[in-house]
């Protein structure tokens, strides 16, 4: 439980958040309200730890999510006793509780006014500035939230969290170029964060699907690059493999739409078809392994999100059904071709079998006796006067006119046969 309380609360599932909130009274009861600075007192009581204050902060968030406002206030009181009411983090937590307890827009506007008053007195209060952005976004004032974040980043350009939030705000407005730029700034600050590389791959893939500037190929190439970097940094990252399969599926399915273009300077070009197929196959195999091991309840493979596993399983099922459908079409086409060829040969054999041989002909001359071009059957047919059934002729003509499914040899011989019948 201590591990869960030390994690960012946004990563917890609703069930985990509820379980932790239910433990709040026990945690509060098991720890003193305040700690003495005297070394003698510390010998007879629990020592103060950094983890405890982190747990109190996370408990406030969890309790507010589950509606336990009383426990949230108790945690806040202990933080105020330890750090004072003017501490920046404590001030932000106070505002968070007021936001959660607000019942209408007027009360939210009052909290927003308090944030603005604090920032007028101290414009460097980063925590209050971020709470103001979050409140503006929750109230539907996205343009104001973006403007506030831009101002914050001018003051503090190395804040990766603010860049990530700005990217998400741009993405919500369909501003893909700006969202990509903001995410690239995050990666500059955290170059080894595999989840951010995958996130950037997802955004560029969305831009390729929605772009109207005629440059989807550039976005797709960048998407492939980002997903590959993501799984290079974390070889078991599901979202990286999922995204790689999605983007390679799209490129391979629409290969005829993309012309070979010379990439601009410092740009990544699309790999060739063979490389894309190998990447697609590798992503498919890894996704199948992750889904299989997760479903088998293997101990080291249970850290994945259940919704992401379900999405991966659905993608694999869709891919499998498409492969089966294409395979069936190929088999059906081949069977139709073989069937047409066999039926044409059967008609030809029937025509040859029902006719009398050269020695039994009563007319036909030398051609009937010797055959034309050394073919006895044709000479027999030419020498026979009206011995072929009209229905057989029509069936052979139908096959020849359709031609689909007939080999060139069968078609040529059938034409020769009908020519000899003067059809």
TrEMBL record:
<dbReference type="InterPro" id="IPR019734">
    <property type="entry name" value="TPR_rpt"/>
</dbReference>
<keyword id="KW-0802">TPR repeat</keyword>
<feature type="repeat" description="TPR">
    <location>
        <begin position="160"/>
        <end position="193"/>
    </location>
</feature>
<comment type="similarity">
    <text>Belongs to the EMC2 family.</text>
</comment>
<feature type="domain" description="EMC2 TPR-like">
    <location>
        <begin position="107"/>
        <end position="206"/>
    </location>
</feature>
<comment type="function">
    <text>Part of the endoplasmic reticulum membrane protein complex (EMC) that enables the energy-independent insertion into endoplasmic reticulum membranes of newly synthesized membrane proteins.</text>
</comment>
<dbReference type="InterPro" id="IPR011990">
    <property type="entry name" value="TPR-like_helical_dom_sf"/>
</dbReference>
<dbReference type="GO" id="GO:0072546">
    <property type="term" value="C:EMC complex"/>
</dbReference>
<keyword id="KW-0472">Membrane</keyword>
<dbReference type="InterPro" id="IPR039856">
    <property type="entry name" value="EMC2-like"/>
</dbReference>
<keyword id="KW-0677">Repeat</keyword>
<dbReference type="Pfam" id="PF22890">
    <property type="entry name" value="TPR_EMC2"/>
</dbReference>
<keyword id="KW-0256">Endoplasmic reticulum</keyword>
<protein>
    <recommendedName>
        <fullName>ER membrane protein complex subunit 2</fullName>
    </recommendedName>
</protein>
<dbReference type="InterPro" id="IPR055217">
    <property type="entry name" value="TPR_EMC2"/>
</dbReference>
<comment type="subunit">
    <text>Component of the ER membrane protein complex (EMC).</text>
</comment>
